[in-house]
Fold:
Amino acid sequence: MTAARLPKREVLLLRGGTVITMDRQRSVVRADVLVVDGRIDKVAKSLRPPKGARVIECEGRAVMPGLIQSHVHLCQVLFRNQADGLELLDWLSQRIWPFEAAHDERSLGHSARLGIAELLLGGTTGIVDMATVRHTGAVMQAALDSGIRYTGGKCLMDQGFEGLREDTRAALKETEALGKEWHGQDDGRIRYALCPRFVLSCTKPLWNEVRSLSEKNGWTVHTHASENRAEVAAVRKAVGDDNIAWFHRIGLTGERLVLAHCVHLSEREEEILSATATTVVHCPGANLKLASGLSPVPRLLQKGAHLALGGDGAPCNNTLDAFHEMRLAATLHLPAFGPRALPASEVLAMATRNGARALGIEDQVGSIEAGKRADLAVLELTRPHFVPLGPDLHATIVYCAKSSDVTDTIVDGRHLVRGQKLVSLDAASLAENASAELARLTKRL
Amino acid sequence: MTAARLPKREVLLLRGGTVITMDRQRSVVRADVLVVDGRIDKVAKSLRPPKGARVIECEGRAVMPGLIQSHVHLCQVLFRNQADGLELLDWLSQRIWPFEAAHDERSLGHSARLGIAELLLGGTTGIVDMATVRHTGAVMQAALDSGIRYTGGKCLMDQGFEGLREDTRAALKETEALGKEWHGQDDGRIRYALCPRFVLSCTKPLWNEVRSLSEKNGWTVHTHASENRAEVAAVRKAVGDDNIAWFHRIGLTGERLVLAHCVHLSEREEEILSATATTVVHCPGANLKLASGLSPVPRLLQKGAHLALGGDGAPCNNTLDAFHEMRLAATLHLPAFGPRALPASEVLAMATRNGARALGIEDQVGSIEAGKRADLAVLELTRPHFVPLGPDLHATIVYCAKSSDVTDTIVDGRHLVRGQKLVSLDAASLAENASAELARLTKRL
Structure:
């Protein structure tokens, strides 16, 4: 087992780097960044390190807001490489749901920690996560112990697949209790989200109660919508309307709703998403691998929709790599929409500022500005594949950077990755034992 | 300047790894690989290291054939990040051609070495390269000195852009002289290719002479075709036929022809490519970034066409990363062709066995088999983003691996990357001086 060793918050001085602020003006400045008590204290030139401060030398490096993946499944990381060559509904029913149903606390915790190790090493500091139906506490605990910023919760399913289906009342009771237990822990780093899986897994009474619980507690609602053509057809048959149109009709759309995918949309649904400020989480890697299709991202942006980015599940991608998703998002839509349809700066915003909104805390993270929480990634810029750097550093990062260029990751002022080494988790041991953990789980299938 | 330090060939024992042979059966075996005199001597279990052998411990690693990118432009690496947001014809005329015209020997050599550094660090051992019109020797010399396996040559342009256009006779005379000088150097590691840029840059007499020179000398012909809709329309207007159909009519198609892109094809052209065993080099990253479109790769494969893979130019991609291209190729076509349309093993073949054919030496490299040249990449498999490993290791590599997972690269028995450090080039200095080199070039614009 892997003992968590969450480091204390320190006074940190990130010195001499190029700061990709992602503030409202998206300014890029040569400056030092001082972190005190978990917050960004100052962004200015030539800061003197306070006594006892740890100095991180950032010469030749970019200091950027920690990346936010607004749709992942930590519970599925242990199923990486085990479910290739399938479309969504087969992938779920033949592989993922049986796997999820076979999780116990131990395997689920392992899966979550393995995923968090990958995420932190690759500069992702915050996630919106859908756990599985049972043992949700194991995922929340892994998030708490590892230091990552987390918004997520128990997956709700009260119809469909027998191995995961629950009684509606019981599911709602458990999710409310989990929310009361976990929401706000560690000074707000952990936030609870209501996570009905998708329309085909949930009854109408469940959706109505989710809406009420969200209103009552201010909790985010995180679900999937309109990912795959067969799913879209089945949803239409089930509820007599298009997926997002139906969400709108039952009063679910709005700023607290975070919808993964939104690949197949009617024109009216595109308008609804934009008008209601619902977050759409683009998951290009997963949409390709599951043969789902391409979300009309440039058109959604043009209509004013709020777009975020996510790696989705390891078994449908197969990595949780924000840099891979950014590069895909920035280039995938150009053949259909033209070479300037999705500026790199917009894509970087999807993975930072907009992700902060999906987490429910846009005033707290997502940019490097004094007063915000210190969620940061430091990126080596001097490797051959980066140079010469371009006039637009956002573009250089989006088109050239790899997760392996991240040298340091800081969440809430805690220095979690130092010189490419993870300190809050034992990445090597988690990786080494993953196959054995999966084998134990598979025996329970 | 960066002095080349090409290491000697050594006796190498790669011990305890998982060998992705990419032989005819595509077998994957736990075995040691012994390299003697630049060739693979044995692939077998528990080999005893010969006296004086260097042992490379490969426990937890994959030993795979060195990756081959069958379409790159080393001359353009210095223009990385300098030409975003444009489609092909604008990108060429507004940015790339003026840049290429401003190269001198020094900047061109720098560009080539910087690109080769990136390629070798990322496990690419062989390339088919199109140089620029002038100073071709600087690129060939960089290839010779760095140890990479190279098939390429002078870019031929006898119409169009004034800054690069040459007299037909003079261009042909120079390319023939270069071919005679360079083809076969270092025991065949360097091979010459005739590189007419594309139909719009070359007159019919030039194409006819290229065909003759190729027949006479056995040299590869490497060119671009049917990348962009506007280009395809212009070609049709210029020669009165579709691009590949016209190549077929003038007798250019066949095993010695290596065609980059082939995005926009008529049904008849797809048949021609398959029937003539012409190599089609799929460049998915560049095709997305230049908004060109998607080559119908699964259909071409089904028709029996010969597909290879390439990163193209740094300013249209922006990296020369075989792992990025493999993952793109493996997933990009699934929404249109279905989730099993392009098995990972086929994609890995495109970047290994099929690339060897594009290089003109399929009997020599592209797989790990006794008697073949030792072009190898060693890949760390124990990092969090890989695990648990799947039942199909080809898929695990194609969907999860990054260029930064390469620990060792061997070309022709020379150990060029050792523990992620490049020995034949000074990568840090090349990267550090790239901007200054570009600034010198830009002054000449």
In short: Chain A touches chain B through 68 residues (CB under 8 Å). Residues 105-121 of chain A form the longest helix (17 residues).
